[in-house]
Amino acid sequence: METLIIKIPDEKSSIVKQVLKDFGVTIVESDFNDKSITLTTDQREEIISSQTQIECGSYVEQSTLDDEIKTWLKK
Prior knowledge:
By secondary structure, this protein is mostly helical.
């Protein structure tokens, strides 16, 4: 198994951890200030692909999705 260490700012750690868990990532807590998580090769490739999509602007803001869902539900 490959280990990838990601430093997550404390104020964002709960959100980031939840997203990673949703992707099936096993998070290994550390006794140090640094948080470590373990990713499979597929998970790492998915993150790299996602980062590339974000850099290219291929994403939708959550607020936009929320608005679209509200409009759809009113129909």
